[in-house]
Structure formats: structure tokens, C-alpha cells
Specification:
The protein has 88 residues and is an all-beta fold. 0% of the residues lie in helices and 50% in strands. The strands form two sheets. A six-stranded mixed sheet has the order 1-3-5-9-10-7, with no helix packed on it.
Length: 88
């Protein structure tokens, strides 16, 4: 599996099934538009900064436009439907 390591703001690509964030300060990950393809993205924050997952409007992550990941938190994003991301 391809692992993308980031320390700064980043836009997740379709070729980034796993993203590991390692930053000393806050950063934002922008998620591609949800299309219902069933794509799965694994996100892990190993840094001390808060990671903000940001959906592109009108997409939502379980009903909200952003989700926060604190230190050592992780989530799995599932491209469930058009404009709908689920956290597993």
C-alpha cells in the first residue's frame, strides 16, 4: 500500500490510500469530492498538531464539513455516496 507522509496542508489524491500526518503544528487535509466509488482512505495523525479533514463543498463528512484528528488519532474514510463521506 502506498503511504503518503505529510507535514503541511495537503490535498488527498486518489493515489493516496494511506496518509500519515506528522506535524508540530495544525494542518489541513482536503478530501477529494465523494462520488460513491467505494474508495477508502486511512488517515493517521502521529504529530502533535491537530489535523483538520476538510470536505469540498457540497460534500460532508458524516453531516459536517470538517473533522478533527488530535494526536495519535486515526480514521478511515469511506466514499459512500455522491457528496457523502463516512468515518468507519
Amino acid at each position: 500500500m502506498n503511504v503518503t507522509k505529510v507535514k503541511n496542508n495537503y490535498t488527498i489524491k486518489e493515489t493516496d490510500p494511506m496518509v500519515v500526518c506528522d506535524s508540530g503544528s495544525a494542518l489541513t487535509l482536503t478530501i477529494k469530492s465523494a462520488s460513491g466509488t467505494g474508495d477508502v482512505y486511512y488517515i493517521k495523525n502521529i504529530g502533535v498538531g491537530i489535523v483538520t479533514l476538510s470536505a469540498i463543498s457540497p460534500d460532508l463528512i458524516e453531516g459536517v464539513s470538517t473533522k478533527l484528528l488530535v494526536q495519535y488519532a486515526s480514521c478511515i474514510l469511506f466514499d459512500y455516496d455522491v457528496n457523502v463521506w463516512l468515518v468507519i
